[in-house]
Amino acid sequence: MRFALGFLFLAALTLPVAAEAQFAKPGIDQQIKLGKQAAKDIRAHEKILPASDTRVQTLRRVALRILATFTDADEPWEYSFDVIDSKEINAFALPGGSTFFFTGLMDRLKTEDELAGVLGHELTHVRKEHWAHAYRDQMNRNVLMTVGAVVLRPSRDVLNAADMTANIAFELPFSRKHESEADDGGFESMTKAGYNPQGLADVFKMLSESVSGQPPEWLSDHPSDKKRIQKIQDRIDHDGRVFPAQRPIDYR
């Protein structure tokens, strides 16, 4: 989603992995440890709303309904839900389960169903280990780039062009795949929790109207809002179920 995957805050962190397995996917324990470290740093540097704030209470109440749909006996993740006081229209889930919403997004959501859609999407990123897969693949690509540079000794311009090509050809499409998977997971979990999936489509409509100057889809790490809205609408139309009316959000 345009809700950053939560990876932005991890960019400067180095994951400790043994040399003989340095390019394997980070394990669940590693993801939880790294996510907790990043969450601690975020709470230390951002203005986090208190638990008494109605936006935090609403977020956690809806989150509990979504979590209740996760019936895996070995569900390992350690979830937490906080709200950052910021006008940014965003939300993200860190590896391991720490999840943050910005007031800029919370204040634009009109229904609990929209909130449930965002939560379902973000928690799918955690449960599918999208960050860990992306980290592994990025590390392996970096090795190939380094080996090529040592053997071929290309010019700086060639290296810059190669890096851009790798980003467009590998990293961004892979991220779009994860985003589509998270959309599907969000649909599944929110409907299991008794919410109307129209809320998920409405979030993308709101985002497309709130953010101008979007890059072309092939240069973006997210599918276009138009395609995502249409995919969700098509799924709703062919689902066959009658979904409950959306629940308006009231932070009073």
Write structural notes for this entry.
This protein has 252 residues and is mainly alpha-helical. The chain has one domain (8-18, 26-239). The protein contains eight helices and three strands. The protein has a three-stranded mixed sheet with strand order 1-3-2, sandwiched between helices. The radius of gyration is 19 Å and the shape is globular.
Topology:
Blueprint: H1 28-45, H2 54-67, E1 80-84, E2 91-93, E3 98-102, H3 103-106, H4 112-127, H5 130-152, H6 156-192, H7 198-210, H8 225-239
Parallel strand pairs: 1-3
Antiparallel strand pairs: 2-3
Helix pairs in contact: 2-4, 4-6, 4-7, 5-6, 7-8
Percentage of β-strand residues = 5-15%
Number of helices: 8
Tell me the span between the first and last alpha carbons.
Answer: 28 Å
Low-confidence stretches: 2-21, 144-174
Radius of gyration: 19 Å
Helix content: 55-70%
Q: In short, what is this structure?
A:
With 252 residues, the chain is mainly alpha-helical. It has helices at 28-45, 54-67, 103-106, 112-127, 130-152, 156-192, 198-210, 225-239; strands at 80-84, 91-93, 98-102. The chain contains 8 helices and 3 strands.
